[in-house]
């Protein structure tokens, strides 16, 4: 074992002891940015090295020896080696964009050989951003990609590519180092080499039944040839809330509440003398000093035979509410060994272990009355809210946060790995076999305490929340994904013909098992201790065995697939792509178990035509288009073709009551997966010596055979019925320029239009409701549905001159709903589409400036044309809530307001879903701004450091919006999103970072 360790260390350190001396430097582009992966070759010493993540390199060579420096997409240069730290500048070649290598499904390809829309995001763009999920960091950077972030620590963003295509799933397929996955919370952003966003049919069809929602491919870092490199980076950030909802203070609340009571026929509130607080509950539970700490370290060593990379990261994130703490540790190992010219093997491994936060939300702090002090110092306990002002319905927000702190202990662990072997059979023909797996384990246990709270009106104490017995909950979930890939790839150039062909067979298995349970304390016994050592189901002697409940959930599914792809171009001018995949799934009915998916695309590189010779306008001009059929295997439940049983009517036999079991719904053996027919056409061009680049595309996606659950009376069944269309345009442009050796800058932007429409659902008139959201033909998916408000009734004469309402009792000062169908009365038939949660336009733009050693970047992101449903601050008929300050402008008499109704929460008339709850969802956000400084190489040389960078970064600093809640962003399900529940803000994060390379 000792010999093995010494041999391993020797392998890592071998380059440091080779002949010559260490020639160090940095390879940069025309803007001064480092070029990772640039290859440096020494002509005499026969050594080579690759530039690291920041463009720094170290190569064993002699002073004066010629170094050849090259990188795909740049013109190669030859320079003489010097003992001083070198800076080598590479200029972009005329067709850089076309030569760029991108990762596609089951392989790589040059962008010049592609006919669709694939956007490559370099890992540097996510590595130094304060987000636990790397997709959060590319919000606004990719046309067609919608990312709706959440401020809750550890939670995934809502991600959609080119609209919402299905009823049951929105998130794209993630492919991490080859394994198909549904989330990437185990990935450390610092370990990412690149992210490719696949949007068009020619790139998605190869993923078959899982390609409909788009694909995001993530490649983690590999070592490059060169000396051993160690990189450490860290950042510390402070999180703050920048947009707090405006709520009434104590005096304003008292005024409005008394007015409301009078309007409802009650006397003014009589206990104000007992409640003298003026509490801002948001500030009370807010963690005003929330921090975020990130540490990452990586070690990389590469030779011509062996490439080894190791990365480890620690991420500590505090929530915006007290006592929310998220901790995760990640590591990544990649090792590739070139056994011989014909054989290469490799292994990759990602590990993730997290302690999940006990999350709360701000909803109760928005609803709680401000007239109460949070804590009663005389009694030494928390105050209950006033009995008549939400005491029974709204718990004291601070008591909920502090009284139950650290009572839920949840953790999550994942191991994601792959092993592969690659065999070169003949020149241009290789075979690759890979086994990939994702094993996930989550567990948790929690405790519900019992504690007293003070009731001011009666000078008594009562238990908080009405809970008189302590209890314990416990769960454990295991998940596994296993994948096998067998791929045969052939690459050949003959004459002007260039061909890459792929054939493959793959298997995929996914399974889940979960158990959970609860137990309460003995009713006449001592409480279960407030000590985590006792928080188990078998909590003897405190737990009551008769109250112990348990449950389990389990499922598995598998697919087997055959796939093929051809990439062909003639003379680099005429390009053709075709893909095919045949998927067989265990989850669908046997009659339709196998389904076929395919695509075809073509492109024309116009500038390579003879008639374009001599022209000086276009450096690149490519016209492209693709068409294909994609699949969607997601449904509301697993195995929709095989319904489970549920309890039915019981029968009495003698003295026995025998339960009956019936199918949960009628079986439909003809079910098949949804299909998405998609096409796009576009153009790519570059001009002005490649300084100005522009891309445009039109896309259209039509989902048919929607998996629809139909419930008509006692009839329940799944069927294939319905159609959704998403279409629009995407535009991307960039400008890069160099003023002189010290000053460079770049500007880029993208804009996407989106039109979503549900063409049909089941039969005419069939609709699916989810709160204020609706799925109905002729409207965007998830549209808000309710009454259209025309104003406020100003008088009884106004009421008599308006259409009578049959939906409740109303009076002057109440909302006036529109008679939409024109039948002369207000009924439920007058409900209509009152808002669209999908934006008409998504956009983002960025700027980068480099001046000597300083770098500055700024990113903006926004949406336009969508609506938000305000699901808070509308009052309640069950409990008295605090008021939005907008309610100070309520109707108090004729002419006083034509929008804010009178105060009368006792009546549900103004609580109908209506355009009164609709707010403008458009916003523009300063998403990220960063100022950095790269220390001079001469200075670093004295410290034996390759690179040192310090930076300050601010995220979500300013948002320009028109909504009344914390944030205009609101994700959700495919048919219910864009609802602002007032639950959690998106924080502004100001961080200071350091990146050092040895």
Automatic annotation (TrEMBL):
Pfam families the record matches: CarbopepD_reg_2, Plug
Localization per record: Cell outer membrane
Keywords: Cell outer membrane, Membrane, Signal, Transmembrane, Transmembrane beta strand, Transport
Main location: membrane
Bilayer topology annotation: Multi-pass membrane protein
Entry annotated with the keyword Signal: yes
Organism domain of life: Bacteria
Gene3D superfamilies for the chain: Carboxypeptidase-like, regulatory domain, TonB-dependent receptor, beta-barrel domain, TonB-dependent receptor, plug domain
The keyword Oxidoreductase is annotated on this UniProt entry: no
Domain TonB-dependent receptor plug: residue ranges: 110-215
Residues making up the signal peptide according to the UniProt record: 1-18
Family stated for the protein in its record: Belongs to the TonB-dependent receptor family.
Name under which the protein is recorded: SusC/RagA family TonB-linked outer membrane protein
Organism: Flavobacterium limi
């Amino acid at each position: 074992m000792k010999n093995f360790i010494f041999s391993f260390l020797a392998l890592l350190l071998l380059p440091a002891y080779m002949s010559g001396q260490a020639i160090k430097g940095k390879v940069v582009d025309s803007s001064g940015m480092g070029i990772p992966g640039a290859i440096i070759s020494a002509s005499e010493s026969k050594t080579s090295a690759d530039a690291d993540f920041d463009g720094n390199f170290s190569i064993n060579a002699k002073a004066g020896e010629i170094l050849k420096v090259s990188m795909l997409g740049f013109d190669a240069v030859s320079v003489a080696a010097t003992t001083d730290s070198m800076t080598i500048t590479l200029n972009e070649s005329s067709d850089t964009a076309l030569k760029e290598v991108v990762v596609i499904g089951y392989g790589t390809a040059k962008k010049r050989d592609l006919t669709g829309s694939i956007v490559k995001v370099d890992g540097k763009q996510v590595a130094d951003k304060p987000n636990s999920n790397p997709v959060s960091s590319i919000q606004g950077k990719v046309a067609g990609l919608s990312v709706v972030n959440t401020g809750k620590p550890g939670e995934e963003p809502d991600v959609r590519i080119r609209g919402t295509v299905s009823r049951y799933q929105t998130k794209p397929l993630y492919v991490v180092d080859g394994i198909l996955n549904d989330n990437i919370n185990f990935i450390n952003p610092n370990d990412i080499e690149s992210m490719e966003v696949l949007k068009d049919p020619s790139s998605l069809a190869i993923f078959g039944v899982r390609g409909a929602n788009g694909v995001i491919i993530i490649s983690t870092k590999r070592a490059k040839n060169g000396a051993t490199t160690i990189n450490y980076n860290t950042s510390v950030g402070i999180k703050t809330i920048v947009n707090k909802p405006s709520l009434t203070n104590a005096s304003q609340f008292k005024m409005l509440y008394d007015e409301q009571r009078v309007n409802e026929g009650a006397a003014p509130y009589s206990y104000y003398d007992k409640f003298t607080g003026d509490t801002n509950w948001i500030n009370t539970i807010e963690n005003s000093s929330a921090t975020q700490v990130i540490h990452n370290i990586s070690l990389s060593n590469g030779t011509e035979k062996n490439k080894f990379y190791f990365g480890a990261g620690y991420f500590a994130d505090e929530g915006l509410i007290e006592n929310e703490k998220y901790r995760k540790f990640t590591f990544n190992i990649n090792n590739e060994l070139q056994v011989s010219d014909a054989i290469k093997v490799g292994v990759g491994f990602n590990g993730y272990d997290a302690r999940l936060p006990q999350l709360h939300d701000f909803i109760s702090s928005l609803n709680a009355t401000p007239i109460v002090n949070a804590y009663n110092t005389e009694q030494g306990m928390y105050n209950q809210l006033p009995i008549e002002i939400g005491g029974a319905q709204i718990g004291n927000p601070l008591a909920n946060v502090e009284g139950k702190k650290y009572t839920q202990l949840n953790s999550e662990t994942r191991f994601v790995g792959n092993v592969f072997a690659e065999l070169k059979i003949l020149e241009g023909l290789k075979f690759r076999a890979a086994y990939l797996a994702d094993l996930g384990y989550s567990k948790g246990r929690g405790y519900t305490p019992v504690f007293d709270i003070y009731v001011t009106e009666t000078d008594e104490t009562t238990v908080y929340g009405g809970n008189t017995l302590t209890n314990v909950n416990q769960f454990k979930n295991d998940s596994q994904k296993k994948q096998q890939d067998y791929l045969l790839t052939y690459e050949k150039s003959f004459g002007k013909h260039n061909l890459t062909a792929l054939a493959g067979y793959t298997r995929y298995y996914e399974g889940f098992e979960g158990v959970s349970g609860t137990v309460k304390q003995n009713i006449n016994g001592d409480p279960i201790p407030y000590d985590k050592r006792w928080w188990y189901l078998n909590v003897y002697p405190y737990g009551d065995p008769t109250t112990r409940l348990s449950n389990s959930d389990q499922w598995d599914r598998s697919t087997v697939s055959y796939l093929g792809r051809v990439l062909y171009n003639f003379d680099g001018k005429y390009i053709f792509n075709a893909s095919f995949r045949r998927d067989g799934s265990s989850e669908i009915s046997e009659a339709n178990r196998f389904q076929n998916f395919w695509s075809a695309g073509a492109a024309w590189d116009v500038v390579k035509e003879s008639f374009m010779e001599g022209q000086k306008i276009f450096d690149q001009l490519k016209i492209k288009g693709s068409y294909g059929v994609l699949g969607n295997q997601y449904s509301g439940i697993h195995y929709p073709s095989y319904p489970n049983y549920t309890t039915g009517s019981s029968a009495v036999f003698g003295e026995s009551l025998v339960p009956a079991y019936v199918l949960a719904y009628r079986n439909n053996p003809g079910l098949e997966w949804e299909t998405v027919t998609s096409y796009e056409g576009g153009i790519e061009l570059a001009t002005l010596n490649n300084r100005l680049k522009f891309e445009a595309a039109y896309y259209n996606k039509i989902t048919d055979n929607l998996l629809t659950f139909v419930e008509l009376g006692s009839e329940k069944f799944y069927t294939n019925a319905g159609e959704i269309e998403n279409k629009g345009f995407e535009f991307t442009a960039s400008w890069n320029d160099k003023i002189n050796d010290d000053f460079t800058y770049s500007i880029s932007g993208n804009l996407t239009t989106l039109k979503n429409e549900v063409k049909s659902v089941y039969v005419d008139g069939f609709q699916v409701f989810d709160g204020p959201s609706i799925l109905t033909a002729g409207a965007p998916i998830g549209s808000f549905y309710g009454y259209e408000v025309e104003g406020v009734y100003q008088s009884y004469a106004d009421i008599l001159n308006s259409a009578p309402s049959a939906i409740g009792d109303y009076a002057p000062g109440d909302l006036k709903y529109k008679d939409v169908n024109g039948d002369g009365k207000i009924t439920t038939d007058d409900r209509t589409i009152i808002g669209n949660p999908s934006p008409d336009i998504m956009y983002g733009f960025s700027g980068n400036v480099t001046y000597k050693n300083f770098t500055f970047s700024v990113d903006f992101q926004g949406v336009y044309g969508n609506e938000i449903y305000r699901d808070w601050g509308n009052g309640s008929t069950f409990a008295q809530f605090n008021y939005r300050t907008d309610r100070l402008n309520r109707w108090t008499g004729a002419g006083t307001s034509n929008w804010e109704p009178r105060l009368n929460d006792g009546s549900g008339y103004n609580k109908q879903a209506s355009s009164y709850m609709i707010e403008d969802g458009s916003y523009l956000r300063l998403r990220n701004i960063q100022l950095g400084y790269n220390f001079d190489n001469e200075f670093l040389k004295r410290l034996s450091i390759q690179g040192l960078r310090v930076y300050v970064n601010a995220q979500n600093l300013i948002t320009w919006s028109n909504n009344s809640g914390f944030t205009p962003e609101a994700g959700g399900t495919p048919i219910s999103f864009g609802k602002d529940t007032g639950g959690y803000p998106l924080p502004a994060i100001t961080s200071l970072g350091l990146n050092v390379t040895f």
